[in-house]
Design brief:
The protein is mainly α. The chain is built from 16 helices and no strands. The chain is 72% helix and 0% strand.
């Protein structure tokens, strides 16, 4: 039997003050936000208004079930509407660049090569290092380490071009060419790096290569640290008893991984191009190219070859670092 009109709650009489405050806060944030991001957010959100019930229904689920449902939802939505939104952001970069800017960028082959080294040498080595310590030192599952290694093997993110455009607009064409070159070769480089880093035989090869290189180029350092290695190994083993919770451990590892890549790209560029007039701008640009990977490609790979949904966590961090650079820009 239908309920009487008097028994139904009148939603027009009372307005939740908390909701009103939230709406005002959102409007204030949007008013202060970058217009390109606001428009891009609308492109992403509009097609999914009808799916908001899916998100709301997850709050009544258990943690594992909620994680699987939301993970599937993010993968589907991101894969379908990521490209149009990203295309709009890249259009915003393109309309502020001219043909001569790109021609000038090609006149800097050393910078292009340094970017390639940062993306496919420095970042994969850091990914392997953090993947190994996540498994051996922190005792995390193997798929977490594999996710870290895999995300370090993909090409640079297109959002790094937009990040460069926000901080150093004159370097945006150079950043676009850097990302284009890495993307053009990723179909060959990523499988090879994945085989080397995630393959079972790489640990032995990598260990011996590091030992030989250290003894060859840094013999004094090897002699200095050799007495400390036995007690250090005991200390590392004892760290298992003071580890943070599982989620916090993953978060700290991923933050440290990406920050290390950003810092490595910045320092590496400063050492190579310390005499360049625009060395600071070039350092920031190559830092983005080294530290920001293509999250969509990594997301597709980990969901194709790894079963656990937690593996995608590593591909979801990157663009937040831009805000730090924006505040620290000279």
């Amino acid at each position: 039997m239908a309920s009487s009109p008097s028994s139904r709650p009148d939603r027009t009489k009372a307005v939740n003050p908390t909701c009103k405050t939230s709406e005002e806060t959102v409007k204030q944030i949007l008013a202060k936000g970058n217009p390109h991001f606001v428009c891009g957010a609308h492109v992403l959100v509009k097609p999914y208004r009808e799916k908001s019930s899916l998100i709301d229904s997850t709050y009544s689920m258990g943690l594992n079930q909620r994680k699987k449902v939301l993970g599937s939802f993010i993968i589907q939505t991101k894969g379908k509407y990521y490209a149009p939104a990203l295309g709009f952001l890249m259009f915003a970069v393109g309309v502020n660049s001219r043909e001569n800017d790109f021609l000038e960028a090609f006149k800097r082959p050393a910078a292009l090569f340094a970017s390639y080294v940062g993306q496919f040498v420095v970042k994969p080595l850091l990914g392997y290092f953090f993947g190994i310590i996540s498994i051996t030192l922190f005792g995390l599952p193997t798929f977490i380490g594999a996710g870290i290694m895999l995300v370090s093997c993909v090409s640079g993110a297109q959002l790094s071009n937009y990040a460069t455009f926000l901080i150093d607009p004159q370097m945006a064409p150079l950043s676009i060419i850097m990302t284009s070159l890495s993307t053009a070769t990723v179909v060959f480089v990523t499988p090879m790096l994945s085989l080397l880093l995630i393959g079972k035989d790489f640990l032995l090869i990598y260990t011996h290569c590091c030992r030989i290189a250290m003894e060859l180029f840094f013999p004094k350092i090897c002699n200095a640290i050799r007495p400390f290695l036995p007690p250090l190994s005991v200390l590392v083993t004892a760290l298992y008893s003071v580890l943070s919770p599982f989620g916090a451990t993953i978060f700290l590892l991923i933050v440290a991984f990406h920050l290390s890549a950003l810092i490595a790209g910045y320092v590496f560029t400063g050492l190579v191009f310390h005499k360049a007039l625009d060395v600071k701008e070039l350092q920031r640009t190559l830092s983005y190219e080294t530290g920001m990977q293509c999250s969509l490609l990594a997301l597709a790979l980990v969901n194709s070859f790894f079963q656990d949904p937690l593996t995608v966590i590593m591909s979801e961090i990157g663009f937040s670092h831009v805000m730090i650079w924006a505040k620290r820009k000279e």
